Sequence to fold (347 residues):
Amino acid sequence: MDEHQAEHSKKCSGWREFLPHFAFVALIFLGVGALAGTALNPSKPAPTITPTTIPTQAGVSEAELKTTVEEYVNSLLLAGSGVEGVISSIKKGENAYEMELNLLQDGSVVDSVVVYASFDGSTLYTAAFDLTEPLPSPTPTEDPLANLEKTETPVAEVFVMSYCPYGTQFEKALLPVWDLLAEKADISVKFVDYAMHGETEIMENSRQYCVEQEFGEEKLREYLWCFLEDGDSPRCVSELDLDEGAIDSCINETHEQLNVSFEPPAGSYYPLYPVHALENEEYGIGGSPTFVLNGKVLSVSRSPEAIKEAICAAFIDPPEECQQTLSSTPASTMFGFEGGSDSGDQC
Fold:
């Protein structure tokens, strides 16, 4: 309770320090209305933004302008804030008056901003831009495949959680590539070292791990083609004629050897899944999916063609399979093989 009160007191005292910055933000919003032609009339709220012409005040003096601006700012923008705006200097530029507006709290200057007014005193601006300055050069986008180590047999590892919708999205995009390059590249699906989707996910992670351990990589690919259709693992085990007893035995042995638990450890939200813990630590895996190619974590579009292009770029001598064009449509999230939209999200 004491900690809560201390934090509350800290927030309350911080509000007083925030007021000048709140006032500055209010002035920024003023600029939007000014660009639309907001008249300096402190007797009524800022008008609705319309493209109407504002009557001018010919021959306004600097003293009159100072009074008008201060009345407008303090009556409309800073009222009730405990902050007062005072014009400390006025300088006539080529196209407008430039004024320094000090923000005072308890009589002390706590911040200042530069504002501008038209020569006739009808319009106030909070910013001026020099349109003669050259535009900055665009920052070149880094090629994710730049500096990628090339090898005779690229190693592509995809880390997922079996019920993460973004993980299944990547897997569905990966499968056509895996089928195409299975004999040319070392491609594998591995698991993030924690599970966000409970016991169901831990069991499915282990089921997929054991399908590969017991029946080989090709059978795992067949299983994934089936499972990612609708998430019905019993149907897939049956249709692929997999020995369910062998899978269950493998799961039990794996969980016992690695101390897999369905409960999170103290201080954690999610249970650990340590089957590929060493690889997770080596690459700094932090979410599902994470794509690692020849030891480098990459971000690529989640379409078969984009993944194929990435893996093919990692060959010293790309095989003829790399000439085949796959779908450029991103996979959908979760289950089903309909097309979706690209996403960089992770679980």
The chain has two domains: 7-125, 155-323. The chain has a mean pLDDT of 84.
